[in-house]
Amino acid sequence: MKEEHIVAGRLENQTEITHFILMGLTDQQEVQSILFALFLILYLVSVIGNGTILYVVMAETQLHTPMYFFLSNLSCLDIFYSTVILPKMLSGFLWAHQRISFAGCITQLHFFHFLGSTEALLLAAMAYDRYVAICKPLHYPVIMCRQKCLLLAATTWVTGFFHALMHTLMTAQLDFCGPNIIEHFFCDIKPLLRLACSSTQLNLRLLNIVTGLIVTIPFFLTLLSYLYIISFLLLKMKSHRGRCKAFSTCSSHLTVVGLLYGPVLFNYLPPSSGNSPRRDMVATLMYSAVTSVLNPLIYTLRNQEMKAALTKSLDTLLASVRV
Q: What's the predicted TM-score (pTM) here?
C-alpha cells in the first residue's frame, strides 16, 4: 500500500507537456542568418522545380505515360515533403528557440513519415515500371495500363499513410512530463521518444521492425528490378542506341534512389535507441531538403523528352505572355 501511494503521488506531481521547444540546427545568430537564406533558396527551388515538372507532365500529351505519371507523383511528394519540414525550420532561424504545440508536433511527425515512406514505395513502383518497359516491351501497354498505374500509386500513398498513422498513434499515447526540449529542427520520432516518461520499448520495436521493412523491402525490390534490367541490356539487347537510352533513363532513377536511401538507411537502420541527434539532423536534411531540390534537376537534365517538353511549354507560355 505504501509503494502504491508513492507511485500515485509521483504521477499526480508529473506536469503534462502541452508544447515542445525545437532547438534547431544552431544557436549562433550569425550562422542562422546564412542558413535562413540558404534553406529559403532550397525550398523555393524545390517548389518551383517540382511544380514545373507537374505542370509540364500535365500540359504535354506526349508525357502522359506511366513513367511520367509516377514522376509527377514523386514531384508532388517532394513538394509536400519539403513543406512539412522547411517552413517551420525557416521560422526557427528567426527566433532563438522555436515553440511547437503537442498537436502540431504529432501532426508534423505524421506527415513526415507518411510522405517519406510513400516516396520509398513509389521509387520501387518506378523501378518496376522501368523493368517492364525495358524487359517486356511488348507486354508493357497491358501490364502498365492506366488502371494498374493508378492502383500502384494509390497503394503507395495508402500504405505510407497507415504506416505513419501507426507511429502517430503510438507516440501520441506516450506520457511526456518534461523536459520538453527537442534536439532537432522538427518533430521526428526518435528525438520525441527520448523525451517520453513512459516505456518506449514497443515504439522502438515498431520503428526498427516496421519502418525497417518499409525502407528495406522497396530498396531490395528496386535493386532486383535493376539487376534484371542490367542483365537484359547486356545480354539480350543488341541495339547500342537503345541500350544507351535505357541506361540514361535508369541512371536518373538510380541517382534519385541513392540520394534518398543513403541517408534514410544511415538514419533509421542503426539501433534507434542510440543518442546521436547531430547525425540524425544531417541525414534528415539530406533526404528532406537536398534530395527534393536535386530530383527535378536530375530528371530534366538527363531526360531528353522532359527537356523537349519543358522547352515547348516555356515557348508556349512566353508566346501567350507576349500576346
A: 0.85
